[in-house]
Specification:
This protein is an all-alpha fold and about 230 residues long. It has one domain: Four Helix Bundle (Hemerythrin (Met), subunit A) (Up-down Bundle). Helix content is about 75%, strand content about 0%. It is built from 7 helices and no strands. Helix 2 packs across helix 5 and helix 4 packs antiparallel against helix 5. The radius of gyration is 20 Å and the shape is elongated. It starts with a helix and ends with a helix. About 40% of the residues are buried.
């Protein structure tokens, strides 16, 4: 019996909930000297894993877009659809939590001069465009090609977003994980690891469920078209 994506997604969601609880109640806060609002930093344990999951989703979107555009693989189109929806969900989680953190730490929820913030917002808007566009346009090769092209070219924002704080650190803090410059308390690192694993499981389950749902939707649409043709 195959594992359903919904079960995997629920497991990841439970882990994400545990991460949030541990971050708010168990993990230590940062030094008061390092942040203006040290307690607001606790949302970091939700913010960073959701950003990681969004990047995974955009990576899968890129793969699905390429294989549909050049190979016309049906599984690739389903991956494109499912990963765009997953990218939108986790992208909004990251933006929402970042705005809460920014409002407390910087006094404003958003800084339009920060490259990192704006490139990630553009990625989230891209996934929003793909999700709404697919739902508002009739399915067809030309429609799929258009959205796949956006999925491919939009992926350039992923590495650009990743290195943005290394080149232009304005408000968004630089990397503190797996770098020689940054370090985390062991308890903080544990919660962050739980969050990263949980959100990875969540995004995998979300995409699995989304691909299966898309397959059912396309099959239903095909049956409806056949019925209409036979009724004429």
């Amino acid at each position: 019996m195959s594992i359903r994506g919904e079960a995997v997604a629920l497991l990841g969601l439970a882990g994400a909930g545990l991460t949030f609880w541990l971050g708010m109640t168990w993990a230590p806060s940062v030094s008061i000297d390092a942040f203006k609002a040290p307690e607001a930093q606790r949302i970091f344990y939700w913010h960073v894993p959701s950003a990681w999951a969004a990047m995974l989703a955009f990576g899968m979107l890129f793969v699905g877009s390429i294989f549909w555009f050049f190979k016309r693989s049906e599984w690739a189109w389903r991956l494109h659809v499912a990963s765009s929806e997953a990218g939108l969900a986790t992208g909004l989680m990251c933006v929402w939590s970042g705005c809460i953190w920014g409002a407390a730490e910087w006094g404003v929820p958003w800084d339009w001069t920060d490259i990192r913030l704006n490139t990630f917002a553009m990625l989230t808007l891209l996934s929003l465009y793909l999700v709404l566009g697919r739902r508002s346009q009739p399915d067809g090769v030309e429609t799929r090609d258009t959205f796949a092209a956006f999925g491919m070219y939009g992926f350039v924002l992923v590495p650009f977003t990743y290195i943005a704080t290394r080149l232009w650190q304005i408000r968004h803090p630089g990397p503190v994980v797996a770098t020689s410059e940054g370090s985390l308390n062991s308890d903080m690192g544990t919660v962050l690891l739980i969050g990263a694993i949980s959100f990875t499981v969540l995004i995998i389950g979300h995409v699995m469920a989304g691909m299966r749902l898309t397959k059912l939707e396309l099959r239903l649409e095909d049956l409806q078209n056949r019925y209409e043709e036979e009724s004429r």
